[in-house]
Amino acid sequence: MKSWREHGRRRSSTSQPSLPGLFSGLKARTETTRARVPSSPSEYALTLASARLGLVFLSFFLFFALVSGRLALLSMGHETAEAQPLHAASGTESVTARSDMIDRNGTILATSLPTMMLMADARKILDAHEAAKKLQTVLPTLNVAAVTQEIKTAKRFITLWRHLTPRQYYEINKMGIAGLEFTPDESRIYPAGAVTAHVLGYTDTDNEGIAGLEKSQNTRLQTQDEPLATTLDIRLQTILHRELSQAIDTYKAIGGAGIIMDVNNGEILALVSLPDFNPQNAGAASDDSKFNRATLGVYEMGSTFKSFNTAMALDSGLIKVGERFDTTQPIVVGNKTIRDFHPAKHWMNVAEIFMESSNIGSARMASKVGTTQQRAFLSRLGLTSKTTLELPEVGAPLVPSAANWRDTATMTIAFGHGLAVNAVQLCSAAASLLNGGLLVRPTLIKGATDKITQENGAVRVISEKTSAQMRALMRLVVKHGTAKKAEVAGYLVGGKTGTADKITGKHYNQNARMSSFLGVFPASSPRYIVFTLLDDPKGNAKTYGFATGGWTAAPVVGNVVSQIGPLLDMPPVDADVIASTERQVLRPLGSDVLESLNLDDEADDYAAVESNRAH
């Protein structure tokens, strides 16, 4: 066996590495060892221990370097295999910001705010029940029993809570419960709340759109950074929402709808459906509240359809505006009897029929034009097929089959019974009549359509002459006919009232109705359609018990126009300017027709209601 001296001599010939910093002292000791041979067993043991200590320090140094390098990789976005279940539990690979939605003026309508999601690693939770009880002090609605069971049965990561508020995040983090993890999340916020709910829609907890524009534009909102610009004007939306809400309360209606549309490009500046809901808590809303009465609901629109019937008659060339029809006796066709609310004692011309809203006169006009032309005309206006709109909630019209579209259907459709459409369809078709005769396609996305002109491929549905006559007739309805309650000082408003009996089962209910008013302003050079609809309004003392469109829906449009006109750079004008402009608007009807109307007769104004009975 070799002696300790031989070991010492062999060790002294071995070179030690030169290590920086903490290990630099080893070099000096190595040189000392090399300089002389240990003189005793104790000195030899001390030398051997120093060398071994150096190796231990070197091992710690290498381990520290490895861990530091790994942490650096993780900080640059690389994940360990053990961390992957955290994201898998959330249902997404990463949290992706959803772009904003804004109104036409840049006001934010929907945005996403960063939040935190609370996760739990079930393997690291020491006491599931205790952890759940602690969390309940910050999250009062947390179900302790359910969370306890979920933690006990889970293999790894589970989601405990979505969209923590900053204070909730702080309080839970302060608890220091082992096994809890936080991961970035985001929450969708709607600053206008219920006011825009039916247009914007809402998202689920994973920020996937499941209604409204959130659903139809889901991919666009997830993949593009630029805000989605809608056609809405939040100022107009708020005004329409408020006025319609007040009317529903006043007339005790069960619901309503309202639309403001640009007649020149189909852009919808406001769209309201009531009742509505809070999009932040859509899951708690009733089905009725989430039902979009402006787009998904299809209704027989009553006398507003006389606008299309009259335009069809005049544009066909078969009927002139001064032509008279027998409106003194009811019409019996098939098993139906067509009557007027106020039967006339004389034959009426087309202008009178429209202004006084005669069912009998409208039916006779439609009969003269014929079923084939009626069907073709309404199809050309887009009233017999599902409208194109950037919402998933769009109802298809209820149209009689070709076999059932015969004389009876032709006459009843003339005054708005027998064919049901949604409110957006009605407005876009009416806009096509009033903008000079060019087809309008509705839209909720700003810039989706340019101003409609024949040069950019717009389809002509009626002549400019017929369009001018329709503007004149609509002005007469407000000035002297069934919609005097829509008159607004300083503005030239036109329109058409509508009242339709609702269908209960297979029969019309004469005690329940849809009352509406289709308004346009300014009638001299139309820019905007303003439409309101009330579902089953009730008459009161101020309306003499009437609940028709002229008494309930027309005043809403008047109130809206008076408020939005200045916002749209159309301040009210003096009465003499209104009178002069009105004469120009009425001129296309001809002096003979105007003189025959006895426009100064204000008798029985309280009962100026349109006929609405289907039989």
Characteristics:
alpha+beta; elongated; 3 domains; 5-stranded mixed β-sheet; 5-stranded antiparallel β-sheet; Penicillin-binding protein 2a (Domain 2); 615 residues; Beta-lactamase; 23 helices
How would you characterize the overall build of this protein?
The protein has 615 residues and is α+β, with helices and mostly antiparallel strands. The protein has three domains: 4-75; 90-196, Penicillin-binding protein 2a (Domain 2) (Alpha-Beta Complex), CATH 3.90.1310; 237-493 and 508-607, DD-peptidase/beta-lactamase superfamily (Beta-lactamase, 3-Layer(aba) Sandwich). Helices cover 39% and strands 17% of the residues. The strands form six sheets. Strands 1, 2, 3, 4 and 7 form a five-stranded mixed β-sheet that branches. Strands 9-8-18-17-16 form a five-stranded antiparallel β-sheet, sandwiched between helices. The relative contact order is 0.10. The model is unreliable at 1-36, 70-95 and 601-608 (pLDDT under 50).
CATH superfamily assignment of the largest domain?
A: DD-peptidase/beta-lactamase superfamily
Helical amount among residues, as a percent range?
Answer: 25-40%
CATH topology of the largest domain: Beta-lactamase
Distance between the termini: 127 Å
Low-confidence stretches: 1-36, 70-95, 601-608
Write down the CATH class of the largest domain: Alpha Beta
CATH architecture of the largest domain: 3-Layer(aba) Sandwich
Mean pLDDT metric: 85
The backbone outline, from C-alpha atoms, is: elongated
Describe the structure concisely for a colleague.
It is built from 23 helices and 18 strands. By secondary structure, it is α+β, with helices and mostly antiparallel strands.
